[in-house]
Write a structure and sequence with these properties.
With 362 residues, the chain is of the alpha/beta class. The chain folds into 2 domains: 147 residues; 208 residues, 3-Layer(aba) Sandwich (Rossmann fold). It has a 6-stranded parallel beta sheet with strand order 2-1-3-4-5-6. Strands 9-8-7-10-11-12 form a 6-stranded parallel beta sheet, sandwiched between helices. Helix 1 packs parallel to helix 13.
């Protein structure tokens, strides 16, 4: 065990080797670099004379402290006496259920999570999802004429499911599908859906039996059938976006349907709502139940407060410019407030260092 070495254990091959997390800027390879906070973490360790590197450079076996980013079941090393192991829960159960299984927590000295209901400040500590705020350039507040010229609402995602997730009832992937379908059925001219993937698809949304059907009928027939079966969805489909095009696109709309990947988890607030606030677009939010505590400003619309799509649509459609402008002004106030500090890259790492300071520096 080397007290001058620390390991960042990420199971994915690309992201977890060759010091990848520490080399890319906040823009990353796609929409955002979700690992950007670890650039700051590496610098913090360097100031203490400790080298933080990925698992292929500083292995868990030789490092005195190891940070496992999700997937604790894939960390197969044997923990030695004197070593410190930390689990960072970054993904919700829908994507990484093992991170939330306390049976895997026994091997770790510290568990960092955005779910404040788990925090006891003994083993479980708060860790907010880090937003790379230094990358954003805050948009100006739109004028009344711009407000009237822009289209009503939009949504960008590659994760859409036609059917509810039985295993993960909190998943919003089906809710996203329902929103897109509703606009396609009722108000296609007021909505634009964009894919957030760079993989060419034969169809726009997954449906039961599609894999089997593709095997038994010619490809052109399948594409034609899929388009016919989903014609109302395709009415609002505007295409796939290249990296970072999202920010330019959503500025053409007044509202953004902001679905977290899951609802019902306190503290789970990802980059989606911040993309809107910085872009000068009002988000309609579904996600963390305590969002009003985390963002205590009237800068977003709580989608859960509306009984159905029609009710929400009417509210958006009838909103006057002064009301809309108030949302944007509140967004600017929040982004420059202390409440925003907790979501910064620097703050997220400071939350981790706080309970570890004595162990690391001593």
């Amino acid at each position: 065990m080397n007290f001058k070495k620390a390991c960042l254990y990420i199971s994915a091959e690309k992201q977890g080797t060759n010091n990848y997390p520490f080399l890319a800027g906040p823009e990353g390879d796609g929409f955002k670099n979700m690992l950007y906070s670890f650039v700051y973490m590496k610098k913090k360790f360097a100031d203490l004379g400790i080298d933080l590197s990925t698992r292929d450079i500083n292995t868990p076996e030789e490092s005195f402290i190891t940070f496992c980013l999700d997937n604790p079941h894939l960390l197969k090393s044997s923990k030695k006496n004197g070593q410190i192991w930390c689990l960072i829960i970054n993904d919700p159960p829908i994507y990484c259920p093992e991170s939330w299984d306390k049976a895997y927590h026994d091997s770790f000295d510290f568990v960092f999570t955005f779910d404040e209901t788990m925090v006891d400040n003994e083993k479980y500590f708060y860790y907010p999802f880090a937003i790379d705020t230094e990358y954003f350039i805050q948009a100006d507040i739109v004028s009344e004429s711009e407000y009237r010229e822009r289209k009503l609402a939009t949504f960008v995602s590659h994760a859409i499911h036609k059917y509810p997730d039985v295993k993960n009832p909190g998943s919003t992937l089906h809710l996203r599908y329902e929103t897109i379908k509703w606009y396609g059925d009722h108000h296609p001219n007021d909505f634009g859906f964009y894919g957030g993937t760079f993989i060419k698809r034969d169809y726009y949304f997954g449906f039961r039996g599609s894999s089997l059907i593709k095997k038994i009928i010619p490809r052109p027939w399948f594409i034609a059938w899929a388009k016919s079966a989903q014609k109302n969805l395709i009415r609002v489909f505007k295409g796939e976006l290249k990296p970072l095009e999202k920010f330019d696109v959503i500025k053409k709309y007044n509202f953004y349907y902001c679905y977290e990947n899951t609802i019902g988890i306190n503290g789970y607030v990802c980059e989606k709502i911040f993309d809107c606030l910085y872009s000068g677009v009002v988000p309609i939010y579904w996600g963390a139940p305590n969002i009003s505590k985390l963002i205590p400003y009237k800068c977003f619309i709580n989608g859960a407060e509306f009984k159905d799509h029609e009710n929400l649509y009417k509210y958006l459609k009838e909103m006057d410019y002064n009301t809309y402008r108030t949302y944007l002004e509140q967004a600017r106030e929040f982004l420059h407030s202390q409440a925003m500090d907790r979501f910064s890259v620097k703050s997220s790492i400071e939350y981790i260092f706080k309970p570890l300071n004595k162990l690391i520096s001593g």
